[in-house]
Amino acid sequence: MMGPMIGRVAAALLVLTGAAAAWAGNTLVAAGQRVAVAKSALTVAPASEWNRLGARPGRQTETWTLDGDPLNDLTFYGGIETGRPLFREVAKRTKPLPHFSSTMLLTDLPALFEQSYRIALDTPLVTIDASEPASFLGEKAVRFRYGFTRQGEEVKRQGEAVAAIVGGRLYMITFEAPSIHFFGRDIGRVRDLVASARLGA
Amino acid sequence: MMHRLAAWLGAMSCILSPVAAFAQEKSASRPGFAMAPGACILLFRPDISVGAQSTGGIAEPNADWTQEAREHLDAALGRAQQGMGHPIVTAAAPVGEAAAALAAYRALFSVVADSVIEYQFFPGNRLPTKKRAGQFDWTMGPGVAALGQGSGCGYGLFLLTEDQFGSTGRKMLQIVALMARVPVTSGVHKGYAGLVDLRTGELIWLNADRQMGGDVRTADGAAKRVAQLLEGFPGAVPVPAGSGQ
User: Which residues form the signal peptide (chain B) (predicted)?
Assistant: First the structure.
């Protein structure tokens, strides 16, 4: 029983050592400048300072925060390709994440997000509370609100997302924060930032 | 979404860089803060959980241990109050919606404290906006004022302790892993104490450590834990010898 466990621990350590080496550290995002995000053509112009986290949820994603991602998590998905999950797999063999497909309808995207979160957070406590047509990057889009509670935590979080499929790729911006104080305090500046988003400089 | 990965990397960085881990701050207060003399502090019911840690690292709550810890910690807190330099009012146990609100804010306090540890105290993962000289800018929001209504207190004190004692299997795994030069921790002994301005929700002092000492299931251990939790408390005064501490 012990042998396989030690092997798993050693393997995890090797992966983490590599991940830590590739970790670029957190950097300041200055106010008033247009910046490219998620290693993609997606650009935004923040009106206030943010912190860009060095650790990324996936290859084509990037997270910004004001006080740490448990308190305010703004994540950019910069052109997820068909056949790819929204973010890095957590247990590919036992609980694989659903994949984005360019044939999806906008109305399929909230369900893709919900299912991905349920698996990644290992909790059934993820809900899509509302969904409506929107405009994003000059394209037809879907805006949806969601809520979730993490395993082992009692903090209820609210989220808002806007997503569009452009050229067969998924572009999305999500914002989530505790329902108490943080979501209400920050959602206004997030909506302004989302309104500034475009593809290219 | 990023929370789990960042926390994991932060924890691993501590293991991989012991020097950095020891250099980590454990306490901070809002710059320029000075509590008015005689200002009373509302002590919320401490959030206490004690259990075991399975071989695989899973927490297994133990109600008996938690009850023992609560009795010992309550007694130790009672004795420690005379050294805190301000009148302490123990908040009445709320019921109904008020109980739900307190539970929600206690949970939020835990998350805010975790963020302070991860993004300000831990140098390797500090946020650029949080590492400016002399800065300690954290809040729980002005809604926290509702918890203090009718108390007459301007400040609220949140306390949290979480202990998971490593099972025999976990300790064996730790020894075997040590021989394989793989770091595996056994046990969790977390303690957070935070003073909040009940008018604004600003966190004005935090003492938070994920490796506190003292076996909270015993009277001596609980006294040690309380002393660690309240170390550096704003306005604290030395307790005279023989006061029962």
Answer: 1-23
What are the backbone dihedrals phi and psi of residue A172, each rounded to the nearest 5 degrees, phi first? -150, 145
Round to whole Å and give the CA distance between B140 and B44.
Answer: 15
Q: How far apart are CA A184 and CA B68, in angstroms?
A: 40
pLDDT in tens, A92-101: 889 999 999 9
Strand ranges (DSSP E) for chain A?
27-29, 35-36, 42-44, 50-52, 61-65, 73-80, 126-136, 139-149, 156-166, 169-178, 198-199
Contact B115 A70 (CB under 8 A): yes
Strand partners, B163: B50, B189
d(C-alpha B138, C-alpha A177), whole Å:
15
For the CA atoms of A164, A166, A168, A170, what is the dihedral angle to 10 degrees? -40
Tell me: pLDDT of B245 over 50: no
Specify the CATH class of A26-199 in words.
alpha beta
- pLDDT, tens digit (0-9, with 9 covering 90-100), for A131-172: 999 999 999 999 999 999 998 889 999 999 999 999 999 999
CA–CA–CA angle A126, A195, B137 (5° rounding):
70
Q: How far is the C-alpha of A170 from the C-alpha of A83, rounded, in Å?
A: 11
Q: How many beta-carbon contacts under 8 Å exist across A and B?
A: 127
Domains of chain B by start residue, with CATH: 36-229 (3.40.50)
* Residue B82: φ, ψ to 5°: -70, -20
Residue B45 CB contacts under 8 Å (≥ 6 apart), including other chains: B91, B93, B102
Distance set, CA B178 to CA A121, B12, B164, B241 (Å): 30, 15, 20, 43
The DSSP element (H or E) to which B206 belongs, if any, is strand B203-209
- What pLDDT does A22 receive? 44
**Chain A residues near residue B117 by CB distance under 8 angstroms:** none
**Is the ipTM value over 0.90, yes or no?**
no
pLDDT at A8: 45
Residue ranges with strand state E in B114-199: 155-166, 188-197
- CA-based angle B125:B135:A23, to the nearest 5? 10
In this complex, do B6 and A55 lie within 8 Å of one another by their Cβ atoms?
yes
- Contact in structure between A123 and A149 (CB atoms under 8 Å): yes
Partners of residue B127 in chain A, C-beta under 8 Å: 26, 51, 65, 67-68
CA distance B200 to A14: 45
